[in-house]
Design goal:
The chain is mainly α and 381 residues long. It contains 17 helices and no strands.
Amino acid sequence: MITLYRIEKLIRMASVAYRTRQLGPAAESYRQALELAHRIENSGLIDYCRSSIGTCCYQLGRLKEGLAALTPLLQKGESTGDSSRTFGSMVCYIETAQRLPINLATIQTAYSQTERFLHDIGRTSWRHELLVMLVRLHTLRGMYEEALSTAQEAWVMHEVDQDSGYPGQVADFHMDGLITVCLRLRDLELAKNYLGEWEWQPDVMPVNREVRFSRSLADVFRFDGRVREAIDWARKAVYTAEATDYQETKFASYVSLIRAYLAAGQLSGAYEYLKRLLLMRRSESKHDLYNIYLLLGDYRLSCACAVAGLDPLDIDYQTDLARPAQVADANSALRLLRRAGKLYDAAEKVGILIDRHLQCTIRRQVLAYRREQVALFERYC
């Protein structure tokens, strides 16, 4: 009884810490509770603590630790208590696995197990949450048409059955993914339509809403060439994201702001936030490391444009380099282009590993386009 009391006390402490976004202390309290739960062989408490540790570690960016906590729950594939919590743990496993990433076959197996779990408990209406994860996987693999059709299916399911009993999914996650995919498909009007629909959705998680909505607005404005507004909205996303411990949210907000600054030709602003992004270079996510190298290369390319007297280049949305009437400082531009090339080489080393895990070629395609632009620039010099 004393041990059970200590476990319950630790869980209460962890819950308070989690609600106040003190994710590190929350994870530690759940870990201590898990050790005690193992001593008394209480499977329900063991699963609860594992699930909670996985969620905290994902948000902290401690992905390997989170995956280790969640793996036994996926292997068990059954609920010993709250079905929604078990399902949430399975989804968190997939989310963590994709963010590292691990190999595609293991990720796909996790999807199959989770689908079977929903069927077994008679909760197929919760499948829209799983589809949101699949949208992310398709996007990470560069399969944008498949990502859009999956995202639209997920949104319809969400709208049809909003009272399904699963509290983990809100409109913000759906819309964030939909707008990202629309922009990758270069469909600005569809992205704007979804932004308009998003504004009317209930604001269930205010911090999450503000960060994701502001970031999406920034990306839409940047695609539309309205770079001042893009900077304003990206700044708002960063301001809100920095008040949390959620590493993925902060990283994505920094990226949006840096890209807005680069598109506007405001290199000092981009450099300031690149320094903050570099503090996250030890992230366990290979996606983060790849994007850091890619952004550093894009920054050097933008610097080359500036010294050469060229207009700012938004290479992320594949704005082709315009032929200049003359190049102001060809030697400085060429030095910067060589630095950009080395950074793209570093990005490629990481990108090849990711592409191999996810069985795709999207990162090599992204870098091939950048090298084409660098080679074109060199000829102009």
